[in-house]
Specification:
Layout (H helix, E strand, L loop, with lengths): L2 H5 L6 E3 L16 E3 L5 H18 L22 E8 L9 E13 L7 E9 L8 H12 L4 E2 L5 H9 L15
Parallel strand pairs: 5-6
Antiparallel strand pairs: 1-4, 2-3, 3-4, 4-5
């Protein structure tokens, strides 16, 4: 595969199912799996791949998540999570040995300079085939319980803005004109 064709590859990452200690943080009935600093490297690498898809689609200069960021000393990443949306791969002879991830939402703990520390929704990306299927809508109540009152970071895509309006969600600091992030 050439570098150019790899750029346009939107194949969802598939990983071998492993014990993820952060999985127990989410309610059993939710449709995502939290990936954090001590999740298996393959899970963090899958999250990074989806972050690269986000970066390419929205033309960002840098990627919003890397698998290695958990290894950096001094980083406050212990609370940060990437909520990975996926399903077990049923296409092979031994069912449920692999997991296909088709979407992710990054949640970070931010210590703001001009506001109280809070959760932030840093980015969200779903494979185009999985968009508008209600994944984030079903997850939203769980996200709000696990990460109270998250600040959806700017710039927001039109889809994210429409989702927030549909959910009737506004952050309390949204209306404060001099609150700049």
């Amino acid at each position: 595969m050439s570098a150019t064709s790899k750029y346009y590859d939107l194949a969802a990452p598939i990983v071998k199912i492993k014990l993820n200690v952060h999985a127990k943080e989410a309610p059993a009935d939710c449709n995502f799996e939290p990936v954090g600093w001590c999740s298996p490297y393959t899970y963090r690498k899958a999250a990074e791949r989806l972050a690269y898809c986000f970066r390419r689609e929205f033309d960002y200069d840098s990627v919003q998540y890397t698998a290695e960021e958990a290894n950096f000393e001094g980083w406050k990443v212990m609370r940060d999570r990437v909520l990975m949306f996926g399903e077990n791969d049923q296409s092979i002879s031994q069912p449920n040995t692999r997991r296909l991830f088709y979407g992710a939402v990054s949640v970070r703990w931010i210590e703001w300079e001009n506001a109280p520390a809070s959760w932030a929704l840093n980015w969200a990306w779903f494979h185009p085939y999985e968009r508008r299927r209600g994944h984030l809508t079903r997850a939203w109540p769980h996200i709000l319980r696990m990460y109270p009152n998250p600040w959806p970071r700017h710039p927001r895509s039109p889809s994210m803005q429409a989702f927030l309006e549909k959910m009737n969600f506004t952050h309390p600091l949204e209306a404060i004109a001099d609150f700049v992030i």
